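worker-03 picked up job from queue 'complexes'. Input manifest follows; three sequence lines, order preserved.
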Amino acid sequence: MTGASQLLAAVVFLPLVGAFLLMLFPADDHRNLKATAFGLSALNFVLSAGLWMSFEPRVPGYQFETNLAWIEQFGIRFHLGIDGISLLLVLLTTFLVPITLLGAWTAIEARVKEFTIAILALETGMLGAFVSLDLFLFYVFWEAMLVPMYFLIGIWGGQRRIYAAIKFFIFTMAGSLLMLVAILYVASQPDGGWDFSLYAALARSFEPTVEPYLFWAFAVAFAIKVPLFPVHTWLPDAHVEAPTAGSVILAGVLLKLGVYGFIRFAFPMFPTAAFAALPLITVLSLISIVYGALAAWVQPDMKKLVAYSSISHLGFCMLGLAAMSVEAVTGSVFIMLAHGVSTGALFLLVGVLYERRHTRVLADYGGIAKRAPIFAFFLVFMVMASAGLPALSGFPGEFLVLLGTFTSKRPMMMAAACIAATGVILAAVYLLWMVHRILFGPLQNPENQHIKDMNLREIAVLAPLAVLAIVLGVAPGLVTDRVEPAVEAWVQQLHERADGIPAYQPDHGALAPVSLTRSVGPRLRRAPVQPVRPAQNDAQRRLDRLFRRGDAQGVPGGPGQAPVARPGVEAQGARPVDRSALRRPILIPGAPAPAPAPRSPAGGEVN
Amino acid sequence: MRPESYSLLYLIPLLPLIGAATLTLVGARLPKALVVLVALGGSLGAFAASIASTWVFYRLQETPLEAVLWEWIAVGRYTFDFTLGFDALTSALILVVTGVGFLIHVYSVGYMKEDPGFFRYFAYLNFFIFAMSILALGRSLPVMFIGWEGVGLASYLLIGFWYSDPEKALAGKKAFIVNRIGDFGFLIGIFTLVGLFGTGDFQLLKEAAAGLRDLDEVLKIGIFAGYTPRAVITFACLSLFVGACGKSAQIPLYVWLPDAMAGPTPVSALIHAATMVTAGVYMVVRLNFFFSPSVAPIAMHVIAWVGGLTAIFAASIGLAQNDIKKVLAYSTVSQLGYMFLAAGLGAYSAAVFHLVTHAFFKACLFLGSGAVIHALHGEQDMRRMGGLRRPLPVVFWTFLISTLALAGVAPLAGFFSKDAILARAFDVSRPLWMLGFLGAGLTALYMGRLLGLTFFGSARYNAAHGADVGHGADAAHGHGTAKEIHLHKPDLWMRTPLILLGALAAVAGLLNLPHVFHLEGVAGGHALETQWFDHYLSSVVGAPQVLLDAGIEWLLMGVSVVWAVFWLFAGYAIYRRGPSATLERATRSGPARWAHVVLREKWFVDEVYEYVIVIPVRTMASFFALFIDPFVIDGLFVKGSALGVRSSGRGLSWLQTGNIQSYATVFVVAVAAIILWAV
Amino acid sequence: MIAPSFYLLLASVLFAIGAIGVLVRRNAIVVFMCIELMLNAANLVFVTFARQRADVSGHVYVMLVMAVAAAEVAVGLAIIVALFRERRTVNVDELRELRG
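worker-03 finished. Artifact:
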């Protein structure tokens, strides 16, 4: 265990330690409680930024692994590790938690001590679930998350908070118990022993008669969390009743655990069943996209509106998974981040209004822009980010998912992409509807006459989100560089393992120009694409250094670029493809590959 | 031709972006003079950078320029660089955008002087220039899409600039959403082309298009296996054209543009007349290697016909509008129809030429109407104008020149550009030519009417306000019901752009004289330079063709000038004394009344959309949100299963007697039974 | 030596009397005594087999059962007394608070 991997464990458990620390504080010392909680979570963000720095991009497989004995008799180990996908979700979590705490600075006045403890405990639960590579450990974190969230809704919530909290708890619990049964089945080995590690589960193949049941046991648990169409009704209730902080974390992080679960567990463990289920998942995601958007449009309550919009956005994530192409799955992961940023911000903005007027009904507002121009700016900005305006955070994800779906080799995906793209129209419809009802029109309601604009603290809460929305939109490569290798290995593996489809073979389009097809093959080992580009002058090179990533080296050890001879564009028939270049060592650990995850060189160099 | 690297291209969008960002962040605290400085600096900087780029382009023997800024989206099979490109077509559009944009910035300083949202206005305007230059410069479809949606956002913000009026805010929303419907098509088009060619880069797409050998051989690999390349490209072209219909206000997505007149008038001039709405035409011409009669004939027919029908349809509505800006808005829709008619017939340079001249004269017309509205304190109803010729001479003369240009009177700019389109139509398709020709007559008629009602006759603006005619006034200028209106004359800020644009509207035709003007010995013994613009664009759209012979072309020109002048004069003659009483009587009953109502109510298209699309979809949404969710899913399944659990618990609870002896009895009997079974 | 079957028979009879008593009597004290009867029947079986197999562990269990029974009597009688003070009855039919 190296220092780098201790860093991961530190990031996961620092909030929990903080929660215990806070228990020692006097209950009425609100200021110090909040300040300490905020400081700790901010420190945790800094620590996780260290993860980002020392993470080796363009390498699939897990980094920062910690693998310690825990309950040996049952083959349960304390096994943590992150790949590009979980790295970003960890960062999203550590980023959102301090923002949430700062955002709730004045909104939470009762039981502040319990509140801060709950949030920090929740953070550990979420982080743990994102980094666990042991099924038992994952389940522990998964369930541990429920309790603080239950209290967040049930104690600091609105009118019908108890109903919403119980509904949330029971929905999630129903799913996770199914998952528990499946986990036990997966962990019990044919020889009578137990092994809960994910690697072991990935190495097994299950009876065709059993596999669908196992898959659906996991899938239902995750689908409830996402939430997919028929099991989504807990979400609007939970959001409406939850305090702002709860909504931000719920939408920002918790929902992502559902999609993450599909990516990390349900799909790779049961590839055959997953492939068989793809048409159904596609249909359900399409329904979620359209249904969520339409339902959002007619909500009188703005929190409900944003909640239904989450259903629509997460539908895009699931569609991306169902499309099974590198672009679409990377897009899904990207949407998870972008949605965390934009929807988190929208919930914070709703919270800003709620703190002033104590109503979430759209009809009570109108003309607010006149009194609160800063608020108006942030609302329009975040709505645009959420609606997927290009060069803001919402766009790259949606674009990649739709493009990846449209160009997927799976049947009927073109039609699916077209249906999903109507979600882009509908997003504008319901979001602008909300903007219109809140900000525009005459300022008629006398109670809104003296509404105050956002104060410095609230600006400080939203400004980082706005900056991040721009950064993600302008330079999505920051994310995709780290996500894509993991996704690519994932897609390859699934295709290989599900009914023996050979290695996923990228094609650039039937009539792609020659200059493009040279770069056939995984981006991992591909030299930077040099389309017809002239010699660069000095200013150009300087700019390059500023804006482009230096990706010319590729991965150490990988063979160089694999040029593919191509007779000419007119030959539309079989294109000779260098198969050896496409096949490469399997890099997802735990697959029937002999070697465990290749450790990143950086992992060792850190300390 | 290999593009030459010229990284300074990024200055064109960057400067207005800096302006917009500065004004957004600190504009509220800046003094007005500084706001003006920043805003004009941003747009003038973009204009200067565009001129510089054009100069570089020209010096490099018209080699396209490019600036590869960074790798934007690069995942899996596809890489989309953030690349800016500059060629002849770009230079034409970008000079218009930044040049006219700068003039309109100048004009706005005068027009918006008293508005409390002064800095916000200029922030939006600078943002628009930024987005539009990304649209023009973007060298791949996704980058173009950034600008494409960015201008949509700017348009949304500027139409709803006076957001306190719900009508105006709703108009902005409508514009954005209708544009989004178009963007849906645009996205599908991008996906199709990327799926077929693996790239969205125009340069690479052009290479690929040039490499296409047999368009009708069925593809064997890829996601389009089973279709011919021609079918796929046609599908892509039609999808992209849906996007163009949204942005450029063509049937059936034109409905947002007339409503967009809710914005401040300079905005209507810049965004909704000169630049943004021409983006669709630009895109079609930009992709002319696909939008070509030889590659996708069906798509081209559709485009030409949609353009032709829009031209005449919008012009017919323009006849019966009383709001001066609405007339100009429908006129814009109609003129955009001409551009698509040209593009659909493969006359790309004619389309772009009309785009350029239209930008000049229509911007001038809008700015003129803005000056009129400004002078009358927000009055927009032409029935309450009249006689403005004398008090507003500068406005009148520039307006007159632009009107003549729009109507197609020689030798003003619009004459040459419209003639180029009609000549092509005459050659290729007589029915389309008839549409264009009739449309030209209608154009002249409604412009004659507008001119007559606004500038001639007696001044009616002093008469009673608040009659049942007329619409809302520009909120910032609305002043109650003064009997005697003090005319608010345009200041220097406003007059200068008017004069410059009027001059451009007069002489821009020289850019592209028809080939028949190639007469020896006219200009000091040399032949006139003809078709300069066609040649200039030829590196993008191919060499100009001469189709008609000179005699027919001269004849067409003569006929169309006479036709335009006749209808222009007819409109002027009927309306120069104010709303025509004769016509009023004629349209009071019978079919004439119906015709009038249909035109005045814009063929009821908005109502049809409302009842056929909006209300059904919203009803469905309500059905989902108010019935399916609470009653079917929550009621039947969620509460149903909860009820099932609870009632089965209740049902079984009679077993729980609380009597230990009955439990013991069950226990003993069960043990006995087990023992018996075991033995 | 008396055959073990006689002891077992006696134990069965005792057990049956105890069990029937538990099931049919309504007086809690009688029910309680019947439980003791059943315990002792079990003890008798333990002792019988211990004797027969010459294994002392049977005796150990008997001691254990007797100890438990003593403790049980103490607790059980205390509960019954407390119940009687509360409800003035020890009829188990009247004590049915746990009915579902």
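worker-03 released lock.
The two ends of chain A are 11 Å apart (CA to CA).
The CA atoms of residues 60 and 419 of chain A lie 32 Å apart.
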